[in-house]
Amino acid sequence: AGGLEDAELREAQRDYLDFLDDEEDQGVYHSKVRDMISDNRYRLLVSINDLRRKNEKRANRLLTNAFEELIAFQRALKDFVASVDATYAKQYEDFYIGLEGSFGSKHVSPRTLTACFLSCIVCVEGIVTKCSLVRPKVVRSVHYCPATKKTIERRYTDMTSLDAFPSSSIYPTKDEENNPLETEFGLSVYKDHQTITIQEMPEKAPAGQLPRSVDVILDDDLVDKVKPGDRIQVVGTYRCLPGKKGGYTSGTFRTILIACHVKQMSKDVRPLYSAADVAKIKKFSKNRSKDIFDQLAKSLAPSIHGHEYIKKAILCMLLGGVEKNLENGSRIRGDINILLIGDPSVAKSQLLRYVLHTAPRAIPTTGRGSSGVGLTAAVTTDQETGERRLEAGAMVLADRGVVCIDEFDKMSDIDRTAIHEVMEQGRVTIAKAGIHARLNSRCSVLAAANPVYGRYDQYKTPMENIGLQDSLLSRFDLLFIVLDQMDPEQDREISDHVLRMHRYRNPNEQDGDAMPLGSAVEILATDDPDFAQEEEQELQVYEKHDDLLHGPNRRKEKVVSMEFMRKYIHVAKMIKPVLTQESASYIAEEYSRLRSQSEMNSDIARVSP
Questions:
Q1: Binning pLDDT at 50, 70 and 90, where does residue 519 land?
Q2: Is residue 269 part of a domain?
Q3: Rounded to whole angstroms, how far apart are CA atoms 236 and 223?
Q4: Residues contacting residue 88 through CB under 8 Å, at least 6 positions apart
Q5: Of all residues in the chain, what percent carry a pLDDT higher than 70?
Q6: How many Å is the Cα radius of gyration of the chain?
Q7: Is residue 396 assigned to a domain?
Q8: Same domain, residue pair 255 and 162
Q9: β-pair type (338-342, 135-145)
Q10: Contact residues for 425 (Cβ-Cβ < 8 A; gap 6+)
C-alpha cells in the first residue's frame, strides 16, 4: 500500500511540476517564482482557477484531499525552485503554497463549517476576535554527544503541521548508552507559530443567535499579518484534533483551520469616490459658495426638526480643525468635543445615531455599558501563556474618528475621569502590571446627557443642573442645553414633521394595503440612519423631492443626500485652512468679551480658550 501511495504522490508531484513549469504557455508562474526569489520569500500564491483550467481533475483532488496534495505541491515547488536557482533552494528547508481564486461550495462562514469539510481546503471569512502571541516552535533539533562525538537529529511534528505523522514529544537528553547529549541551538530549526480566532460577520449572523467562531493556525510568514478587529478571508485546510483524556475519547474533537493564505478584506474607512464625484463636490462648492455651510447643516439629520445651532456644531465637528504638533513635544488638538445636555425626548440620541452613519469612523458607547478601561485600554492575561497583554478600548479604536457616548451622566465618576486625558491630549497612557504604553486616541467626543434631576430645573443654576465637574466641562468646546419648552406653534411644527416622517410609504403601494411584517420598508436614506443603503452607481447630490420629507412650506429647500454628505466631509477634511490676521483678532476680542461676561455672572462655567 505504501508503494502505491508513493506512486500516487510522485504522479501528483509530476502534475504540479508541469503546471508550474509553464514557460512554453505564458510563463505566468515562471515569472512569479522568479519574483518570489528576488523578494526573498518562500510562499508562492497560486490561483485555483489557473490549476482548474490546466488540470481539472488535479484541482478537484486538491480541494477534497488537501493534506497529501499540498505536500506533493510543495515538493514540486521546491524542485522547480531548485531548477531555477539551486543555491536559493538550499537556503530554506520548505517552500509553501498559498491558494486564492473561486472555491465554489468550499467558500463558507464559521457557521456553515461542518463535518463534511474536514480534510478539505476551505475559504472562510470573518472578523478576528483574538490573537495569541507569536511563539517560536521547534521543527528540528540537533544534539551532540561529547562521549561518542556523534550528532543526533530529531524532527517534531504535531497535528497542526501538514505532514502530521506522530512523533515522540520527549526531548532527548541521553542516547541509547545513557551518554548525556548537548543541544546545538544554532543548528536547530524553528518556525513562528500563532493562533487566532475568527468569528462570523455580525451582519451575516442570523438574528437572535450567538455568532460562531473557528480557531486558525498561522505559521511562518503568515504570523502578525492581522490584528483584532480586522475583517479577513482565510484559505486553509480544515482538520480535527483528537483529544484523549485518561486513555479514552468521547468522540467529539476540537477542530482547527491550518491557514495557507490570509487576505485582508477592504476595511478602509475612506469612501470610494471617483473623479466624477470630486468634480460634483467642487461644482457644488462653487455654486453654493455663499450658503454652503447652512445648506449642509440643514441636510444633517433632516428627519429631526429644528436644532439649527446643534446641527452646525456637529457639522464643524465632522469637518474637524487643524491639528498642530509643536517642536517642544506639545500638541494642539484639532478635534472638537461637544456635549448635548437636556430634557428627555429632544432627539439627542437620534443626532448621535446620524453621526455614527455619516462620520468615516465612528464608535458608539453608552454610559452604563462602558467602563473607564473599556473606553481607553485594558490589561488582560493571555490564557495560553499567562502573560499580560494590552487590549485597545473604544477610544483607541476610534483614532482619527468620533466616539459617541450616550447617557453620559449615567457613567460613574471614576470611569469619567479616565477620558480626561484622551479629550485634551489625544492619547492614552497606561502604567499597569509592568506594562508602560502610550496609545494614540485622537478622536472627537460627542456626548449626550440628561440633567441631574432627570428634567431641567428652571429654578436652579445651569451648573447645578449639569452636575459635571468643571475640569471635564472645560474639555468640551461646545455645550448645548436643549429644553423641551411648551410653545404651541413649535409643538405644531414638530408634530407635523414627525407625522410626515411616519406616513412615508412606497410610491408603488396601493392605498389601504397592510404593511408587510418583518420586511425592510423602503425609506429615504435621510430618514433612518440605521438603514444601510446600497452603493449607487452615480452619486446623487440632492435627495429626490418628496412632499413628506420636504413638507408643504419647504418646496424650494433642497436636502443633500447622505452619501454625498459623507464624501464631501471626507474631501473637506483633507484641506488645511489658514487663519487670517483679521479673523484671529476678532476671535481674541470675542473671547475677552465672553470672559468679562462670566465675571459678572459668577455661576456660569468659566470660558477657556
A1: very low
A2: no
A3: 14
A4: 37, 81
A5: 82
A6: 32
A7: yes
A8: yes
A9: unpaired
A10: 331, 333
Give whole-number Cα distances, 550 to 296, 298, 544, 553, 558, in Å: 15, 11, 10, 8, 8
Task: Please name the residues in contact with 574: beta carbons below 8 A apart, sequence gap of 6 or more.
Answer: none
Whole-Å CA distances, 113 to 48, 110, 586: 20, 5, 65
DSSP 8-state secondary structure symbol assigned to residue 458: T
Q: What is the CATH number of the domain that holds 387?
A: 3.40.50.300
Q: How confident is the model at residue 522 (pLDDT cuts 50, 70, 90)?
A: very low
User: How many CB atoms neighbour CB 405 within 10 A?
Assistant: 25
Residue 511 falls inside a structural domain:
no
Q: Kindly state whether residue 342 falls inside one of the protein's structural domains.
A: yes
Phi, psi of 235 (to 5 degrees): -105, 130
Q: What is the spatial distance between Cα 24 and Cα 344, in angstroms, rounded to a whole number? A: 75
204 and 156 both lie in a single domain: yes
Q: Name 137's bridge partners.
A: 191
- pLDDT for position 60: 85
Contact 523, 507 (CB under 8 A): no
pLDDT value at 78 more than 80: yes
State in Å, rounded, how far the first CA of the chain is from the last one: 84
Q: Are residues 239 and 292 in the same domain?
A: no
Structural contact between residues 413 and 454, judged by C-beta atoms closer than 8 angstroms: no
CA distance 577 to 585: 17
Is 160 found in the same domain as 287? no
Backbone angles phi, psi at 254, to 5 degrees: -80, 135
pLDDT of residue 401: 82
Residue 80: Cβ-neighbour burial (10 angstroms; 0-12, 13-18, 19+)? buried
Cα separation, 491 vs 499, in Å, equals: 12
Mean pLDDT of 7-24: 80
How many Å apart are CA 463 and CA 55, to the nearest integer? 77
Q: How far is CA 327 from CA 324, 577, 609, in A?
A: 10, 21, 21
All residues at 6 or more sequence positions from 179 whose CB lies less than 8 Å from its CB, including other chains: 145, 146, 147, 148
Q: Other C-beta atoms within 10 Å of 419: how many?
A: 27
List of E strands, 473-603 = 478-482
By residue range, what is the domain housing residue 92?
A: 2-102
Question: Residue 535 — very low, low, confident or very high, per pLDDT cuts 50/70/90?
Answer: very low
Q: Residue 383 pLDDT > 50, yes or no? A: yes
417-460 pLDDT, tens per residue? 888 888 888 788 888 877 787 777 888 888 888 888 778 788 88
**What is the amino acid identity at position 421?**
E
Residue 112 to residue 110: CA distance in whole angstroms = 6
Q: How many CB atoms lie within 10 A of CB 230?
A: 17
Residues 325, 361 within the same domain: yes
Instruction: Please give the sequence-ordered ranges of beta strands (E in DSSP) within 176-287, or none if there are none.
Output: 182-183, 189-199, 213-219, 231-241, 254-264
C-alpha closest to that of 320 among 337, 308, 299: 337
d(CA 234, CA 215): 11
Element holding 590 (H helix, E strand): helix 581-600
Can you give the pLDDT at residue 552? 53
